[in-house]
Design goal:
This protein is an alpha/beta fold. It contains 4 helices and 5 strands. It has a 3-stranded parallel sheet.
Amino acid sequence: MFDDLFFLANRLGDGALCSLFAEPGQPGRGHWIFDRPFSQPLREALVAGARSAGQAARDGGCYGHVDGPRFNTKAEVAHLRALGVAAVSQTAGPETVLCGEAELPYALVGFVTDYANGIAGEPTSAAELERLLGESRTALAAVVAAALPELAADLRPTGFVYRLG
């Protein structure tokens, strides 16, 4: 259950700025100001849900958003590790930022489906990757089902959006 985000480029896959308010002067435009990008009450519910579902869960870690569609090189992985990134993927950077701008509580659950280049001796095979992706879908469903009763009644957004004039 990630507690930090590394998404340096803040761009969508097509290169556009990752924002709901991309036009200068657009009503509602602002800056999302946060120190932790993920909702603590949601994270706590998901950690408790994982334990209830019998799933091992790491509480905390930095999610690193990378551009795809490719896997990172050994040098890129080493660089991200040196920056404190625990796991990388190609999807959740924009989701996190857009939820923050929209002032929606958000949390991110990650499952290890392969070890990055330079971490394991050999790349993960396509068959093994497919198997692990299937297992992660089943595990996620169990975690979310177990987390629902744990959700706090008062879910607030993370940080705040400083809206410009």
